[in-house]
Amino acid sequence: MSINIAVAGKGGSGKTTVASLVIRYLMRNSLGPILAVDADPNANLGESLGLSIKQTVGSIIATFNEEKINIPPGMTKEAYLEFKLNDAMVESKGLDLVTMGRGEGAECYCYPNLLLRKFMDSLAGSYAYMVMDNEAGMEHLSRRTTQNVDELLFISDHSVKGVRTIARLRDLITELKLVVKRQSVIINFVPDKIDALVSEELAKLGIEPTATIPLDEAIGEYDLKLKSLLDLPDAKAVRAVDHLMAELLETEKVYTTKT
Ligand SMILES: Nc1ncnc2c1ncn2[C@@H]1O[C@H](COP(=O)(O)OP(=O)(O)OP(=O)(O)O)[C@@H](O)[C@H]1O
Ligand SMILES: [Mg+2]
After folding, report:
1. Each residue of 161-204: pLDDT tens digit?
2. For residue 141, which of 111, 116, 155, 240 sits 20 to 30 Å off, Cα-Cα?
3. Beta strand residue intervals within the chain, DSSP E
4. What is the number of other CB atoms lying within 10 angstroms of the CB of residue 164?
5. What are the pocket residues of ligand 1 if the criterion is a CB atom closer than 6 Å to any ligand atom?
6. Could you tell me where the beta strands, DSSP code E, fall in 40-158?
């Protein structure tokens, strides 16, 4: 079974960036094969990874609904769509990417989400790691699409509001009894050290950050030029994520041998 890593947090806190740097770490340490999953309807993980997307789960469903497709006899619509989802897969060396995208019109994302989840479950044995980028907010949790996660990385920006968002996400996970093996809190965009007001809020909420990621000009530059974060040199933020991953995977090994 693959080890599932997912990110969650407030809008703009750095979820896609961290997901990309986690993938960078796994690839550079030859820990693949990896399945990257972009579950944010406003998809941009592909751009951060330098992969171009032709189809998404949403666009495949839309095409299916618009065109009168003859499903082979004996096949259900669901089975046909699941089979078609392979077209939403972008393959590269050691790393594949599947993108949820959005459906057409006013429909909600429930169906693309459900199909994506099923697709991921069917692929669980084929990859050493799955890394899932999520939309901002809580919906992916309340819809239970972020399930069976081994490592949930809560990303907060360097603000009281970001930290409060994490506390709410944490409470929702408990309330919904979602299956999450371990939760880690990461504070991103940290200047030199965590501001006293942010530290105070963390203490008040009983949150101890596992890692901090510094504000790093190299990330901004790569983002602006649409360069793949996988090609980032040994920048400050990269080092922070590498260190976090080495630590998490060290204990993940302990988990795996125990179970
Ligand atoms: N440590 C960092 N240093 C400098 N810039 C950063 C850092 N982390 C993220 N950024 C920049 O901040 C912006 C937001 O990051 P990102 O897109 O990863 O956030 P997000 O949480 O995925 O956003 P959304 O909620 O819209 O999906 C991007 O322009 C990114 O390049
Ligand atoms: Mg994002």
Report:
1. 999 999 999 999 999 988 999 999 999 999 999 999 999 999 99
2. 240
3. 3-9, 34-38, 89-92, 95-99, 129-133, 149-156, 180-190, 211-214
4. 16
5. 9, 11-17, 40, 136, 188-189, 213, 215-216, 219-220, 223, 237
6. 89-92, 95-99, 129-133, 149-156
Q: Which of 16, 189, 194, 232 to mutate to test the pocket of ligand 1 (most atoms within 8 A of CB)?
A: 16
For residues 54 and 99, the answer to whether their CB atoms sit within 8 Å is: no
For residue 181, what are its two tokens? 């093996």
Cα 34 from Cα 23, distance rounded (Å)? 8
81-to-35, 70, 132 alpha-carbon distances in Å: 19, 12, 21
With a CB cutoff of 8 Å and minimum separation 6, the contacts of 148 are: 4, 179
In this structure, what token pair is assigned to residue 39? 């579950």
Which-ligand-closest: CA of 224?
Answer: 1
Q: What's the number of CA atoms in the CB half-sphere (13 Å) around residue 253? A: 6
DSSP for 215-229, written as a single string:
--HHHHHHHHTT--G
Q: Alpha-carbon distance 247 to 241, whole Å?
A: 10
Termini Cα distance of the chain: 12
Residues with CB under 5 A from ligand 2 (ion): 15-16
Q: Given this model, what pLDDT does residue 140 score?
A: 76
Q: Where are the domains of the chain?
A: 3-258
Domain spanning 3-258: which CATH class is it, in words? alpha beta
Asked if pLDDT for residue 107 goes beyond 70, the answer is no
Cα-to-centroid distance, 189 and ligand 1 (Å): 9
